[in-house]
Amino acid sequence: MKKLSGKSHIKVPGFTFSGISAGIKQSKDKDLALILSNTPAVTAGVFTTNQIKAAPVQLAMKNILSRKGQSIIINSGNANACTGPQGLKDAIKMQTTAASLVDIPTDLMYVSSTGVIGKPLPVSIIVKSLPLLVSSLSISGINDTAQAIMTTDTYEKVFSKKLKIGSKIGSITAIAKGSGMICPNMATMLCFIVTDISLSYAALDAALRSAVNQSFNMLSVDNDMSTNDTVMIMANGALGNKTITQRSPYYNSFKKTLNSITYELAKMIADDGEGATKTIEVIVTGAGSESDAISVAKAVSGSMLVKTALYGRDPNWGRIIAAIGYSGAAIREERIEVLINNIKLISKGTGTKNEHKVQKKLEDNRIVITINLGLGTGTARALSCDLTEGYIEINAHYTT
After folding, report:
1. What are the pLDDT tens digits along the chain (400 aa)?
2. What pTM did the predictor assign?
3. Where are the domains of the chain?
């Protein structure tokens, strides 16, 4: 268990944050959060590809067509998913009431939820708590917000970077939650990103999709996909820079910085995987194409046999090479090399008899599996964690 840090020194110009306990969770932990921009912001989002989508996701996907937003209200402890027409009414009730209290148009307020699926949202409890939530807004309250969106997470996930735009220094800051039900193509995860940098919608949307594809879409805890996955970004332009387009000289820097932020958050989610004791990074090089590299990285990082072997400190390289083989990528067995924490385990498709050395390395809580396919220049990286009895314990009793 990692200590929650409370108030943060992180501030993003033009944004305020809050997080309180509304009583949705029996534990009385924080469970209701709010992010507010002082002005309307260019807004982009990526949502779950699950065919069953929670009510707040349905509402957000409709709102995002405007490409604008100003505030996001988030609750944890209840997903408001598979709750029928009433679930959508409840999401709209959250949206309209919160928008009225912060005095913004309803369509600039987004709603997000996470928690148990199939239970009616206690919307009356939420509405009753909204005045306190709004009065608690603070420029330094981002950690409260990050805590309030957690479910089985053991610590809040916040990451921020500065970026020089001409003579100005802008900020990009993100919070995320996620610990289980995590699979490539996002996860049971929420991520909210705010920046004071001015960008066009096309630039913001393209940068966000690039970041998600290289981070959250390359992350696996247990190969399950949720109904509520949401990643959103708001850019309010408070920095006063010339608006960045995809042709601007600063676009690539913004995209690179955003990529690094979401990848760090994905690492935190892997690190905080339910019951996990080890964070796993799979790096693939030498693939015939980028898509082949991605296929191999996902196959190895998502393999339950690889994950359990690493938990048991078993240097069973047969599981790794088997996953490479069924990945669907073009391979030549005799060219494959695999290293674990810089010790070569497979060379030219066969074992190196370094199992004892690798076994010692598997005592580490961070494991890097490096795979060279020896066929080209394609590269990819994926994140995962080991699979333990702790995962079973958490999920066997999640709703009881």
Report:
1. 344 444 568 999 999 999 999 999 999 999 999 999 999 999 999 998 888 899 999 999 999 999 999 999 999 999 999 999 999 999 999 999 999 999 999 999 999 999 889 999 999 999 999 999 999 999 999 999 999 999 888 899 999 999 999 999 999 999 999 764 444 444 458 999 999 999 999 999 999 999 999 998 898 765 555 678 899 999 999 999 999 999 999 999 999 999 999 999 998 988 887 777 899 999 999 999 999 999 999 999 999 999 999 999 999 999 999 999 999 999 999 999 999 999 999 999 999 999 999 999 999 999 999 999 999 999 999 999 888 877 677 666 555 4
2. 0.88
3. 15-271, 279-396
Three state DSSP letters for the chain:
CCCCCCCCCCCCCCEEEEEECCCCCCCCCCCEEEEEEEEEEEEEEEECCCCCCCHHHHHHHHHHHHCEEEEEEEEEEECCCCCHHHHHHHHHHHHHHHHHHHCCCHHHEEEEEEEECCCCCCHHHHHHHHHHHHHCCECCCHHHHHHHCCCCCCCCEEEEEEEEECCEEEEEEEEEECCCCECCCCECCEEEEEECCCECHHHHHHHHHHHHHHCHHHEECCCCCCCCCEEEEEECCCCCCCCECCCCCCHHHHHHHHHHHHHHHHHHHHHCCCCCCCEEEEEEEEECCHHHHHHHHHHHHHCHHHHHHHHCCCCCHHHHHHHHHHCCCCCCHHHCEEEECCEEEEECCEECCCHHHHHHHCCCCEEEEEEECCCCCEEEEEEEECCCHHHHHHHHCCCC
CATH superfamily placement of domain 279-396: ArgJ beta chain, C-terminal domain (3.10.20.340)
For domain 15-271, the CATH class is alpha beta
Residue 188 annotated among the catalytic residues of the structure: yes
Contacts of residue 49, defined as CB under 8 A and 6 or more positions apart, other chains included, come to: 185, 186, 225
Q: Which of 145, 188, 370, 388 is catalytic?
A: 188
- Joined tokens for residue 115: 């928690």
